[in-house]
Every structure is written in C-alpha cells, then in structure tokens.
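Example 244.
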Amino acid sequence: MREEEVEIAIKVVVVGNGAVGKSSMIQRYCKGIFTKDYKKTIGVDFLERQIEVNNEEVRLMLWDTAGQEEFDAITKAYYRGAQACVLAFSVVDRDSFEAIESWKRKVEAEVGEISMVIVQNKIDMIDEALIQPEEAEALAKKLRLRFYNTSVKENINVDEVFRYLTEKYLEKLNSDEEEEHISPQIGSDLINSESPHLNPKENHYRHKNGKHRNKNDDSTITLQPNKRRTKGRKNMFTSRCSLL
Ligand SMILES: Nc1nc2c(ncn2[C@@H]2O[C@H](COP(=O)(O)OP(=O)(O)OP(=O)(O)O)[C@@H](O)[C@H]2O)c(=O)[nH]1
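Predicted structure in complex with guanosine-5'-triphosphate:
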C-alpha cells in the first residue's frame, strides 16, 4: 500500500507503570520482536503500523510513554490528540494493577473520553501472579472497559488488543459521520471546527452528550491529531519509526 492511499490514522497511547511491558508490546506489534532486556523509556517515543480492518486501511501510531512518575510532566503533553489508549499492568506487579485507575484519570484529564482497554501483561508468568483473575475482571467491569490478558513474550493477544481499539474507533467514526449526515447544520459546523488536517495543532473532541470541547492550546504537542479520514492527502508521517 502506498502512503498516500492511507485513509485513517489513529493515535494510540500506551500507559501504565514502569516495566509492565509497554515498550515491549509496541515493539512486538510493530516490529515483531521481543527482547528480554529492560531499558526504561525516557519521555516518549512512537512506532507505527498499518492494518486493514473492515476493508479500511488504518495507520496506527503507537505512542510509548514512560511509566516512571518522574516523566509525568513530559508524557502527559503527548496524550493530547490520542483517540485510543491501552492501560497496561503486569500480572506480577501489584502496584501496577492498583495504578490503573490513576492512569485512566491522567489520560482523561488531557483528552477526555476516548476508547480504552485494560491489558494485563506477562500472563506467561501466571504462576507468580499477584493479582487474582476476579480482581482484574472486577476492575474492568467497574471501569466498563474490555479486558485482555497478554503475553508480549509469547505473542499472545497483542494483535487483538490493537484490532479491538481500531474497531471501536471506526465504529465511533462511522456513527459521527452518520450524525453529520442526518444533521447537515451540525455537520458543517463540525467540519469547520474540526479540521485537524488543515490545522494540525487543533484538536477537538466530541463527548457523549454531543458537546464539543476544544483542547487546543499553545502547549499542545500533537503530531497527528487526525480523527477523520484523510483520503487523498499525503500523510504527515513519513518515517516508520521515530524517536523523540
Ligand atoms: N515474561 C515476560 N516479560 C515481559 C513481557 N513483556 C515485557 N517483558 C519484560 O519486562 C521488562 C520491562 O519491559 P518494558 O517493555 O521495557 O516495560 P515498559 O512498561 O515500557 O517500562 P518503562 O519504559 O519503564 O515505562 C523487560 O525486561 C521485558 O523483556 C511478557 O509478556 N512476559
């Protein structure tokens, strides 16, 4: 597939405590590799991958954020413009499980409500688990989020996580488009106010109640805030892998 044929781009942020496997997950998904070494992420970086879902070509930009609190101030600026989020913890790290709600709040404080999923990683170490299956399920139920068990090491369920988020996003995109179609007045209003390809620094969000919120400010660091189709436009991203 040629770059200019890509229609939809989704920014996904992967958050969670340090060493739960965020970088490993993104590397596994985008590069198909797994390394045993732990190199803590300093700040943020991202990788991308294109997939086809429901006959749509989708470019996923996966933003890997540092789990260590010392980097919070840097990383939260990068949440902006995200359309989906992976909340990750490790089955052998109790603190990381208990931190999930706070990660959710941090992301929502920056971007409002977006599609999210809870991921319990390192399921290959289930014999040493510090979280009971019922606890994880109860958390997912409470937060009303889909829950996945993954092993990045064994390549279990990693593809499924990102496919699910993509499907959720496409659903939302299609329902937004239907709404615009039904209500042309509101639709044109939306197009005027939400033109992220025309002004890549702008970033607007639609909430469940139908209101729009402009989160744009000068401190926004958003490389690809596009939540709309980009047919016929050359994508801003030309590199497969960038370090920031
Ligand atoms: N056994 C096992 N180890 C894993 C798995 N995923 C990641 N790891 C290991 O866990 C360690 C931490 O992984 P990272 O991907 O660096 O963790 P991170 O969440 O990005 O950490 P920060 O950059 O500090 O936020 C590394 O040694 C990985 O090899 C897994 O599914 N199973």
